[in-house]
Amino acid sequence: MMRSHPLRLITFEGSEGAGKSTQIGRLAARLHALGQPVLTVREPGGTPLGERLRLLLKESSPDLSVCPESELLLFLAARAQLVRETIEPALRKGSWVLADRFSDSTLAYQGRGRGFPEPLLRSLNELACAGLTPAVTFVLDISSSEGRARIARRRGESTKADRIEAEPPEFFERVRAAYLDLARAEPDRVVLIDAERPEEEVAAQIWEIVRRVLGL
Ligand code: Z5A
């Protein structure tokens, strides 16, 4: 069997509105320009099953109740499918995979946000990810007020918040703190990026790190 290249998995994490999708787009374009194969994926989503689970997970409706345990398992189901159906095959072909959220989102949101114990989440992540660990994880750090302001600007006044966006500010403070702790605990993998700076500055820092760490 062909071996996958785990070094080519890069994940982007952080609170809503931090600029993950924006920075993934920029990094993918730079890698493309060098003739490198690149796949971008988002979580939850990225497969037919994952995209359907995404709709369920984001829906905010009085007739759809989602308990924390169901929420956790649905995120993990989407991840398990994405790893096997999309990420692993792409890595085996030698492609870069840039993921908009991955296992650390579960540690931050379901761990610190909802209160599930970290050892449980780590072992569920191990199962869902088939042991795959990102080579580099960029945590885009932004205050929850600035992140929310960006989302509100992007959304305009028309659409209401989804189920998770509707959580109170304290929830997002806990999520942010979880990411900061993760960066302190795993400095070899997790790189903390100040995402309140202009887009171009953030992109330049990320590109420098990718080139240095991954030897481009
Ligand atoms: N979740 C979970 O609980 N557990 C899990 O295991 C997983 C996920 C995997 C997914 O939401 C939700 O699921 C998420 C966590 C939870 N819930 N929350 N909250 P999503 O996929 O719909 O959304 P998101 O992941 O939170 O990302 P986002 O809201 O789309 O934001 P983003 O990708 O980080 O930002 P962006 O789209 O690149 O930028 C947002 C806006 O800011 C946009 O208009 C940009 O043009 C602008 N922008 C970007 N960069 C800048 C800078 N540097 N300056 C100024 N403006 C900027």
Q: How would you describe this structure to a colleague?
A:
- The structure is a single chain.
- This protein is α/β, with parallel strands linked by helices and 216 residues long.
- It has a single domain (3-214), classed as Rossmann fold, CATH 3.40.50.300.
- The chain is 55% helix and 12% strand.
- It is built from eight helices and five strands, in the order βαβααβααβααβα.
- A five-stranded parallel sheet has the order 2-3-1-4-5, with helices on both faces.
- Helix 3 (68-92) runs parallel beside helix 5, helix 4 (103-113) packs antiparallel against helix 5 (118-129) and helix 4 packs across helix 7.
- Bound molecules: ligand Z5A.
- Ligand Z5A is lined by residues 16-22, 42-44, 75, 101, 105-106, 109-110, 150-151, 154, 164-165, 198-199, 202.
